[in-house]
Amino acid sequence: MPFNTEFKPVSLKHTTLFKPMKVGKTMVLHRAIIPPLNKMRADPETHILNEELSIEYHGQRSQSPGTMIITEPGNISPEAGGYAGSPVIYSKVQMEVWQKFFSKIHENKSFAWVQLYALGSQASPKFLKANGYKYVSASAGAYIDEIFEKKLRKQIIPKLV
């Protein structure tokens, strides 16, 4: 892919990007926020995050004091998942691993919020069937597309909610 010679960089010096901002009771020192990025590196069986990689990853991204990090999503229950490798945050053992990388973030004088989630209509039919979970969605009949609905009905129709 050729380099775009028509692109003209614009300085962000006079924008609010580098100005502090209050988020709830927390004062972040700039507005460059690390968004939630699910890396799908949790143990496929226990859904516990890879401790070493999580501490390193979040430690690197929190090196600039005052950084706001919204962590990768954490499923709120086993049934709320939907993919192998997706992290969870509902048991004491799992929360102990999360706490270790929160400690690293706080050591770097930065801040973290967990994105809590339930996959609902985005859950993998194969994952749901393999784990004996029901398909639960916020809206009845909500499917990604017709192919997804056919797979879902074929694989877990007796458990369809």
Condensed summary:
By secondary structure, this protein is of the alpha/beta class. Helix content is 28%, strand content 10%. The chain has two domains: 89 residues, 2-Layer Sandwich (Transcription Regulator spoIIAA); 42 residues, no CATH class.
Provide structural commentary.
By secondary structure, the protein is an alpha/beta fold. The protein has two domains: 30-118, Transcription Regulator spoIIAA, CATH 3.30.750; 120-161, no CATH class. The protein contains four helices and six strands; from the N terminus they run E-E-H-E-E-H-E-E-H-H. The chain has helices at residues 51-61, 92-107, 125-131, 146-156, and strands at residues 21-23, 26-28, 68-70, 74-75, 111-113, 116-117. Strands 1-2 form a two-stranded antiparallel ribbon. It has a two-stranded parallel ribbon with strand order 3-5. Strands 4-6 form a two-stranded parallel ribbon. Helix 1 (51-61) packs parallel to helix 2 (92-107) and helix 3 runs parallel beside helix 4 (146-156). The N and C termini lie far apart (47 Å).
Provide the descriptors you would attach to this structure in a database record:
161 residues, alpha/beta, Transcription Regulator spoIIAA, 2 domains, two-stranded antiparallel ribbon, globular
